[in-house]
Amino acid sequence: MVVNVPKSPVAGAADAAIPKLGLGTWELRGQPCAEIVAQALRLGYTHIDTAQGYDNEEAVGEGLSASGVARDDVFVTTKVQPQLIGDGDLQRSLEASLQRLGVDRVDLLLLHWPNPSIPLADSVRALNQVKREGLARHIGLSNFPSAMLREAWRLTTEPLAAQQIEYHPYLDQTTMLAALRQHGMAIIAFCPIALGQVVSDPVIQAIAAAHGRSAAQVTLRWLTQQPDVIAIPRTSRAERLAENLDVFDFALSDGEMQRMSSLTRPRSRLIDHPEWVAAWD
Hints:
By secondary structure, this protein is of the alpha/beta class. It has 10 helices and 10 strands.
């Protein structure tokens, strides 16, 4: 049964309208992944995020099918492995992703990480091609430093709709946010609750108590209250799905938003691959 609940608001970027709250599926696999995807969609989620490197596209596809939700009502994102972002490899890998997902196109295709051994011009050319051919409605990047972001824009002939980055209250992303906003791109935040660290933060707990919400909800609200930011929290627990989605009927004050933004601290990056990104902004 599909539960009728209000849909997530959307963030506009390029020609894309991306639901501001999605389900991340990193580390979810097999039948549990399929079940949580189906449950999320029945609850009212309209945005599902996966990646070739997660080894779960087939399970995500099973969840999409089992949910009973129309394909056109779901925004599906997948990401190309850095080893496969070359011209030719990217196109073939996307065809395989579509087959695993059981769809004829994805709504957003991202380069998961830059790869210094593959010319960026080749990757951007391939991204442009799959968009023009309708295999991906929108294209973008993930984990690209600002200098590489600027180079990708120099090379592309199609708009880059979004970049997915690690973004939570502890990680200072000032430089990256400015670069993305300069190009009018949506910002998709992964690890939005800092792998659970926000739950025990006294500042966030105090703000949460003032609103009668959980620390996770307040953090997701802090992100999604920023007009161009989208959050994709992952959960394997069905009871958390509704909690994560229930963040659009309250608002943080300007002071609370600033208190959250002031929690940045050194060495707070949780996901790093030095072989692909030698230096972050």
